[in-house]
Amino acid sequence: MSPSSNRETPCLGGRSVAVLGGGIVGLCTAYHLVRLGARVTVVDRSFEAHGASWGNAGSISPGSVLPVAYKGMIRDVPRMLLDPTGPLRVTASGLGSHAAWLASFLRHATPAQIRRSADGIAALVREAMTRHVALLDAIDSRDLLRATGQLHLYPDRAAVERDRFGWTLRREFGVAVEEIGREEILALEPAVGPAYTAGVFLPEQGMIVDPGEYSGRLRAVLRQSGVRLVEDDVRDLDLARDGAPALVGEAERHGADDVVLCGGSWSADLVRRFGCRIPLANQRGFHVQFPDSGVSLERVVVLADRKVFVTPMSNGLRAAGTVEVTRIDSAADMRRADALVGHVQTAWPQLKAAPRSTWSGERPCLPDSLPVMGRSPVHPRLWFNFGHGHLGLTLSAVAGEEIARALAEGVTSPMLRALGPERFA
Fold first, then answer.
1. I need a labelling partner for 254 at 20 to 30 A (CA). Which of 9, 47, 92, 158 fits?
2. Which structural domains are found in the chain, ordered by start?
3. Of 198, 363, 367, 366, residue with least CA distance to 283
4. 3-state secondary structure of 386
5. Strands, DSSP E only, in 279-371?
6. Is residue 355 within 8 Å of 317, Cβ to Cβ?
7. How many CA atoms lie within 13 A of 332 on its CB side?
8. Tens of pLDDT along 35-75?
9. What is the DSSP letter of 123?
């Protein structure tokens, strides 16, 4: 049963709501606000920008209950930092600007903290597939979803054992997990090369074959529903305590009865000046896409030893992954994207590596890998819905519906109270 399915459907009765952020989380929030009767304006710098909602791995993963910080991470950090092609890199500027965040992040890499974070993630993520199916059906876009499971590959059984804590925890949270060998891997994905001999299959996961198209179709439906999509660079918030809040853009002021911040990595800076300090950091991600790879896949395949997601999309094979902790305004080092090519070739030696395109974008991440959702402590009509980290696409439909219902009901559910910014006080 979904967190909100046992409540009567509330109604916003024509209240105006301004949503900051035109990514997948903001669009899903706008969709559910309109469905509950709100008059909605969505504001973003550019609705055609290729941010994380466009460049992600496309995975819909209700089994992704584990936080980014994992058991033994502190032990592995020196090795990962010395490996230029590895899954984690901290730049000099990132160390300078995110030192406190990194320390907090590593403190969350203990078994007790991982279980605590996993409990919160599981409450959100378990309904992800159901909510996306409902939304896709409503906008006549089920063709974008492929529910064929997710295959995690390891070089050998010993590598699987090193991740035993995580797989055990997933099972404890009800995730369907099947450990398989080389023969079963080839039955699922015959193209996998000999470098990977052990695997874990998650049959209840899925994927979006074109994340950018998902956002595009949502925008079209929102426009047809009367939503205003306004391109403006929001620089400030007007939070007069005795009045309605407003987004202060470079071009105009966007006032409304309520404001929802879905601005991803840029959200926390807007509220910091009002005394609300949220430890949000950007984790830069990368992808490389092969329009004619010569590799045929049926599902998302995760190269677990490199933490790379490989997805067969409608416009080519996409490999996405790596984490770079750096200043949000720093230039992207696209060698990180190029390094993904070697990882894909290890798994599929037949890969046609050229032509290819590369991309980078910012993931908004909290140290405990949980988003910030709910009513803000700085204004009763300002709401937060950001910081979804590596699960932005997966959580977007759930997060949008939960925030819309909270606005309509005027109260936050126990789940949202646990995700509020007060946890960082």
1. 9
2. 70-118+148-205+280-365 (3.30.9.10)
3. 363
4. strand
5. 281-290, 300-303, 308-313, 316-325, 357-365
6. no
7. 17
8. 999 999 999 999 988 899 999 999 999 999 999 988 888 88
9. H
- The band of 355, judged by pLDDT with boundaries at 50, 70 and 90, is very high
What Rg do the C-alpha atoms of the chain give, in angstroms? 21
Enter the DSSP assignment of 348.
-
**What Cα–Cα distance (Å) separates residue 369 from each residue in 4, 164, 415?**
23, 20, 15
DSSP per position, 170-224: HHHTT---EEEEHHHHHHH-TT--TT--EEEEETT-EEES-HHHHHHHHHHHHHH
Higher pLDDT, 85 or 88: 88
318-326 mean pLDDT: 92
* pLDDT tens, residue by residue, 265-320: 999 889 998 889 999 999 999 999 999 999 999 999 999 999 999 999 999 999 99
E strands, 242-315, where?
246-249, 253-255, 258-261, 281-290, 300-303, 308-313
* Cα–Cα distance measured from residue 221 to residue 212, given in angstroms and rounded to the nearest whole number: 14
| Enclosing H/E stretch for 270 | helix 267-272
CA angle 251, 214, 127 (to 5 degrees): 110
On whether the CB atoms of residues 236 and 270 are closer than 8 A, the answer is yes
- Cα–Cα dist 66/70, whole Å: 8
CA distance 394 to 124: 10
CA atoms within 13 A of residue 256's CA, in its CB half-sphere:
29
Length of the chain: 425
Return d(Cα 400, Cα 227) in angstroms, integer.
15
Spell out a b/e string for 347-366, using b for 16 or more CB atoms within 10 Å of the CB, else e: bbeebeeeebebbbbbbbbb
pTM as predicted? 0.95
- The share of the chain scoring above pLDDT 70, in percent, equals 97
What percent of the chain has a predicted confidence (pLDDT) above 90? 82
How far is 118 from 169, CA to CA, in rounded Å? 8
Residue 396's DSSP bridge partners are none
